[in-house]
Design brief:
The chain is mostly helical. It is 68% helix and 0% strand. The protein has two domains: 4-92, Hypothetical protein af1432 (Orthogonal Bundle), CATH 1.10.3210; 106-213. The longest helix has 25 residues, at 122-146.
Amino acid sequence: MLTERFQDALLLAARWHAPQTRKGSGVPYLSHLLGVASLALEFGADEDEAIAALLHDALEDGPHNTGRTHADLRGEIVSRFGEGVARLVDAATDATPDPQGAKPDWATRKRTYLEHLPQAAVSGLLVSAADKLYNARTILVDLLGEGEAVFSRFTAGKAGTLQYYRLLADRYRRAAERPEVAARPRLLALFAELERTVAALEREVGVSEAEVRAYPALA
């Protein structure tokens, strides 16, 4: 059952991401946050996990959108929703900008994220995988409609983007071997759906899993 806490998180996400749009499409960024929260709920999220899904990009994008610091935004998440939700948002955060707004380079951020993913908390895996599934589905839809030009939106281009999603699917498969992860069948179904979507991306581009894993971007 979702309570007023979820409604509060929805309003907060809408406010913190108000000026933001999706890469290359101009679609309000809130559509992504709603989609990730919806997927999280469909695949078994409780209210804290669903709230974290709504706020999963707050610490990464919020400082630029709001002019507030990472610490200030995180403090508000803690005060409104508790430390547990804040930790889930921490786990979902790719990288937070420094005071000058800079982040580590793309490859460094992605390698770090991939390295820690198999050991992530079960709730963190759910929020993370819902985010990645939403993104992978969006890329696939745009690829079918626009062709490979869609990859020009992404820092790493076609090779790096495909490799990142293939390696994500591999890491979730590894995490699924843990007993506490295997005890959540809906989470395993989420991992399987991401695997199916990543495989569809590879088929559409005409490359194999082995070829994608061998790309140099994240090797």
